[in-house]
Amino acid sequence: xxxxxxxxxxxxxxxxxxxxxxxxxxxIKFGRELKKFPEEFRTEKNKIEGCQSQVWLNAQFNDGxxxxxxxxxSTIVKGLAALLLNVYSEQTPSDxxxxxxxxxxxxxxxxxxxxxxxxxxxxxxxQIQLYAVAFNALNKGQE
Length: 143
Prior knowledge:
The chain has one domain (3-142): Sufe protein. Chain: A. A two-stranded antiparallel ribbon has the order 1-2. The two termini are 25 Å apart. By secondary structure, it is mostly helical. The chain has helices at 3-15, 20-32, 75-88, 93-97, 102-106, 115-142, and strands at residues 55-62, 65-72. The longest helix is centred in the last third of the chain and has 28 residues, at 115-142.
């Protein structure tokens, strides 16, 4: 599935919900559905700076695609990480770099987060993009 298709599915899921407490509940559900974060990835190197909560994000490059894993000690932040992983994990670096996270604005999440959570979301997005830039350069070097 493409990034755009995944974003559209997420936007539709959130569009059916009008109350923000229900949207947060859906976000928490996404977080609970994340696969277990491997303990060997829970390192300082994988810790996202700029988050009030503890957040870990790991990326691996396999067969031209970036595989992402994430975890957080906050249920809301873990849900935000899950949204990003649903969209960007198992995608090529060039697809990630050419697909802005417009879906976050479309579902309204960006205007309903506290400033610290908004900073954390931005830090996670930035790290995913940095991984994409690095793996894109690595991939081009192998061609």
